[in-house]
Specification:
Elements lengths: L1 H19 L10 H17 L3 H25 L7 H19 L9 E2 L2 E2 H26 L9 H21 L1
Antiparallel strand pairs: 1-2
Helix pairs in contact: 1-4, 2-3, 2-6, 3-4, 3-5, 3-6, 5-6
């Protein structure tokens, strides 16, 4: 529990600091998606769920705060090519490095398919979260810029994470 609180504190502090640090047009995810991703991380750790499942939500959270930060920087006229990549790299580094040095990541017995479980989950979670967000934009555009149902913008990025959480939960059980 102590390591989780330290990690959560580090991620929160870095997210807060990142808002004031570091832009190309970037679409940010809604606040509900960000809260859902953050809540998923805390909830998974609290339940003692496998690091792969936790990693899914960490990856989604990193993707979300990356897009939020890049969008904020663009609005402040800090524009440069690859701003989203720079923000993403920044957030990944300030998340992974402390997790590695505190022993949460990098243990040779905590691997799945030869990759650290938390890192694997983070990569897959970020990819599917971003894909869900982009699919929402495509589906909404094809529907004359209207959502098909309430909270579709939340459901599209979060639903793949819930499904993948179940898949990895049973895969690693």
């Amino acid at each position: 529990m102590k390591k989780f609180l330290q990690s959560a504190g580090i991620v929160s502090a870095t997210a807060f600091a990142g808002e004031f640090l570091i832009t190309h047009k970037v679409e940010a995810f809604c606040p509900v998606c960000t809260v859902a991703a953050a809540g998923g991380v805390g909830f998974a750790r609290w339940l003692g769920i496998d690091d792969t499942v936790t990693g899914l939500w960490v990856g989604a959270l990193l993707a979300s705060i990356t897009m939020w930060t890049a969008n904020w920087l663009i609005k402040k006229n800090w524009k440069f090519t690859g701003i989203a990549w720079a923000c993403g790299l920044f957030y990944v580094l300030i998340t992974v490095v402390p997790l590695y040095y505190t022993g949460v990541m990098g243990h040779p017995w905590n691997q799945l398919f030869g990759i650290d479980k938390l890192a694997l989950g983070m990569i897959i979670g970020a990819i599917f979260f971003l894909t869900g967000g982009w699919l929402y934009k495509i589906v909404k555009t094809k529907n004359h810029n209207k959502a098909h149902f309430p909270f579709e913008k939340v459901v599209m990025p979060v639903a793949p994470l819930i499904i993948l959480s179940l898949v990895f939960y049973f895969l690693t059980k």
